[in-house]
Amino acid sequence: MAGMPPTLSQFIRARQQDYPDAVGEFSQVMSAIALGGKLISREINLAGLVGATGYTGRTNIQGEEVAKLDEWSNDLLVDLLGETGCVCVMGSEEVEGPIVPPESASNGRYAVLFDPVDGSSNIDIAAPVGTIFSIQRRATESGVGNLDDLLQPGRSQAAAGYILYGSSTMFVYTTGQGVHAFTLDPTMGEFHLTTEELRFPEKSNVYSTNEGNSGTWLEPDLKWVNWIKQNDPDTGRPYSARYIGALVADFHRILLKGGIFAYPGNTGRPDGKLRLLYECSPMAFIAEQAGGAATNGTKRILDIEPTGLHQRTPYYIGTAREVELIGRFHEGRGPG
Ligand code: P6P
């Protein structure tokens, strides 16, 4: 379109040298996710009018209440990805085990993991939510995929991204060649390139965490949060607190403005709350590609070898300097 920034599909085609695999299959998977995002965006924006707010009355594998839009969005993504014929197996926050596309379409080269609507409790208050996706090349040879295709470390991802349903709908992804952001024009139903090669700002003293849990945090996290709140203008303290309660929205703010997001473990849940494969790993890939970092306090998220589809991990992600700082607290070295 003359004068308009490239659409998502134009951008992917133009950069096909970035994708070592046959771009035909990869771009089909990305198109399916983008279409899912457009339809979820419309459903969220009309939720109050189409009876899509509220809950199903069921709880998911996580023991969390399932919002109507969780289920609707999950089924939509399963259908759209399954129909591509490019996906051999899927993993979803909403489903206990591997999801296999129809027999005829399950010989695809990719395994896709997703959290269909992350932070869905925000929908009823018209606050931001997001979809998170992780695309892995299949690990098994051929045919119907299985758990082996899903339980791969984050460093092997072919692509990762998210769709943020906020004041505008953004599509942000990486294939390991930088991070690129697109904005949805709902009048045309097209994502157009907004920023190519997104990078974290170098400095920022913003922290994002649910400090209501700090009564059961472990010592390193308590020492960290108390240190960043001390009054010392020479070291940019106290930090400012910002927390939306939806990982995609909290991360997107940090990607653009800098800072750190922390969801520590605690005495009750030493592995914390966030799930490795479809929340932490994809966002970690994006963070590293934007010059930032993501750890579990001491280890790079992308190097964690998964053992379970829904396994959780303590999570620290953001500007490299801030992730390194909290790492020093976890190594008992303090801020020095
Ligand atoms: P809390 C949403 O339920 C989610 O999985 C993430 O999107 C978000 O960062 C986190 O949990 C919020 O958890 O305990 O602060 O409500």
Question: Can you offer a commentary on this structure?
Answer:
The protein has 336 residues and is of the alpha+beta class. It is 29% helix and 23% strand. The protein is built from eight helices and 14 strands. It has helices at residues 8-14, 23-45, 68-84, 147-150, 219-228, 247-257, 276-289, 320-330, and strands spanning 55-59, 65-67, 87-92, 110-118, 129-137, 157-165, 169-174, 179-185, 190-195, 206-208, 240-241, 260-263, 293-295, 315-318. The longest helix has 23 residues, at 23-45. 45% of the residues are buried. Bound molecules: 6-O-phosphono-alpha-D-fructofuranose.
Largest sheet: 7 strands, mixed
What number is the mean pLDDT?
Answer: 94
- State the helicity in percent bands: 25-40%
CATH superfamily of the largest domain: Fructose-1,6-Bisphosphatase, subunit A, domain 1
Task: Return the domain count.
Answer: 2
Please provide the count of β strands: 14
- Computed structural class: alpha+beta
Oligomer: single chain
In terms of per-residue confidence, which ranges show pLDDT below 50 for 5 or more consecutive residues? none
